[in-house]
């Protein structure tokens, strides 16, 4: 099952920053320069953290916030056209 995550990072070196940004574009949608929204499985999260650990150094920081459905519904991004897609129901009435 996929859940929404907010991934934020602070990278102290420009070369590492570019590598992290490129990696994160494969996992989610950029909201701001160092903030991404991602819809991932538990396995995806572990793989992403592992890949980031290969790039990042101890002076860099990473924050991964799991968002519940109620939290996602209350999020608002000002100054952007970004919207959080609504979950499709698990059924369809025909």
Task: Please tell me the CATH architecture by its name.
Answer: 2-Layer Sandwich
Number of helices: 3
What is the helix fraction of residues, given as a range? 25-40%
User: Would you count the extended β strands for me?
Assistant: 4
Q: What's the overall average pLDDT, rounded?
A: 87
Structural class: alpha+beta
Q: How are helices and strands ordered from N to C?
A: EHEEHEH
Major pleated sheet: 4 strands, antiparallel
Radius of gyration: 15 Å
Shape: elongated
Regions with little confidence, pLDDT below 50 for 5+ residues: none
Strand arrangement in the largest pleated sheet: 2-3-1-4
Beta-strand level of the residues, as a percent range? 25-35%
Identify the CATH class. Answer: Alpha Beta
CATH topology: Alpha-Beta Plaits
Number of structural units classed as domains: 1
Distance between the termini: 25 Å
- Could you state the oligomeric state of the chains shown? single chain
Question: In words, what does this structure look like?
Answer:
This protein is 34% helix and 28% strand. The protein is of the alpha+beta class. It has one domain: 2-Layer Sandwich (Alpha-Beta Plaits). α1 (14-25) runs antiparallel to α2 (42-55). The radius of gyration is 15 Å and the shape is elongated.
Keywords for this entry:
about 90 residues; Alpha-Beta Plaits; alpha+beta
Layout of secondary structure:
Layout: E1 3-10, H1 14-25, E2 28-32, E3 35-40, H2 42-55, E4 61-67, H3 69-74
Antiparallel strand pairs: 1-3, 1-4, 2-3
């Amino acid at each position: 099952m996929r859940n929404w995550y907010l991934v934020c990072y602070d990278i102290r070196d420009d070369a590492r920053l570019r590598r992290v940004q490129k990696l994160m574009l494969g996992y989610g949608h950029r909201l701001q320069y160092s903030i991404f929204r991602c819809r991932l499985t538990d396995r995806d999260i572990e793989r992403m953290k592992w890949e980031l650990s290969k790039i990042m150094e101890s002076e860099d920081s990473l924050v991964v916030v799991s968002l519940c459905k109620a939290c996602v519904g209350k999020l608002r991004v000002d100054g952007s056209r970004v919207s959080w897609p609504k979950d499709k129901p698990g059924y369809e009435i025909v």
